[in-house]
Design a protein that fits this description.
Structural class: mainly alpha
CATH topology of the largest domain: Rhopdopsin 7-helix transmembrane proteins
Distance between the termini: 97 Å
Number of strands: 6
CATH architecture of the largest domain: Up-down Bundle
CATH superfamily of the largest domain: Rhodopsin 7-helix transmembrane proteins
Order of helices and strands: HHEEEHEEEHHHHHHHHHH
Number of domains: 2
Largest sheet: 2 strands, antiparallel
Radius of gyration: 31 Å
Amino acid sequence: MRAIPGAGSLRSLVQLAWLCLLSSVPHGGAKVLEKTFEEWLRYRDECLRRMASEPYPAGLFCNRTFDMYACWPDGSPGTAVNVSCPFYLPWFEKVKHGLVSRRCGTDGQWVTVNGSQPWRDYSQCEDELEVTAEEEGARRLMVSFKVLYTVGYSLSLLTLISALLVLTACRNLRCTRNYIHANLFASFGLRATSVMVKDALLERRWGVELVQVADWEALLSHEAALGCRAAQVLMQYCILANHYWFLVEAVYLYKLLIGAVFSEKNYYRLYLYLGWGTPMVFVVPWMAAKYLKENAECWALNENMAYWWIIRIPILLASLINLLIFMRILKVILAKLRANQKGYADYKLRLAKATLTLIPLFGIHEVVFIFATDEQTTGILRYIKVFFTLFLNSFQGFLVAVLYCFANKEVTGTGCTCPCPCPCSCHGTCCPASPPHPMPAGGAQPRISPFSLPSMAGEVRDEEEVAALEA
């Protein structure tokens, strides 16, 4: 009886795919699946060549076959046939001495289950049950994280779009500070969009029904990965742009509070170059390195971390600069509050409010895990980092939009007046003679709102306060 090469069902291959994905949740299951499928193709080809070259025995026997899981030689009727566990299994090193078995019936047919599915015992080739349970728990945790950041990015995107509409629709809010806020909102929105688009492309790619081996080959081809690679590049660009608009916010506020009086129009174009142009300087070399050296899957796995540092170093640099500016600005605010603490019995509380307001604006929370790189974090520390990173990054756009648009008194107050930090700077016309913050009765100093910190520049120009800031 001659063999039918490749006879059987693809059910085993589908089950194997899920095992591969579940067994590699923290490390990029798609990459493991791709490598496993390549090894499976090599195992299949070797099996087919061996079946074609070996002579057939005389008499009654069970056909040699490849049942999509293992390669079976001809079997004698009424016996069990044992072969080694297939080498394409991701955990092969653990089970390389194990055996998988099938039974050859007395009628010269392989024993089946339910009349169609081949019976086999591959218990010795399975991964350890404890490891599988742990990995299933990790998979469920990652699914929960995905739901969390999807909700966060969706909420942030809706809020950011609304905030952008408010800033662009109200003519009285059109000044450099709010233009910078609008660009920061846009970078948050693009980041959220790119993450959700990438996830949608991955779900579409891995959610297709695979019936034939050709479907797997098409799924894992470079052409099929083009869409998710483009989404990956866009996402990395948006992440970098997001961090550099944090830096623009920090530089602008620093110049406003500490630097000399300057013309905002001369700097806004530089801010645009810094926020949107700088990321291109790093994303293009990273993209070239991935294409030439690691052109596999969706470019999400970093086998050579040197390529990852091409875009990681500028993020760390921007975060460190933001931290230094943040500390300097807090010193300025503290000096101002102390100089007027007679009118501010609760100045420490106001300093705390200003601090908590600046943290999301500058992205200072990024410093918490700045040195805990992906390759250095394992076990529970890795999951803690993933949770806080995903939670803060996904909801940060929502928080920034609320603090700097919907909770901003310039927006919620009547008139929507844009306070001018220096004469003749808003809309290209001179500001009114009246101060942007009315002076309370009795000559008391105006209350400092953490939501309008940039407008403090006009309040720190007199000689007494400059001396206090310089101290």
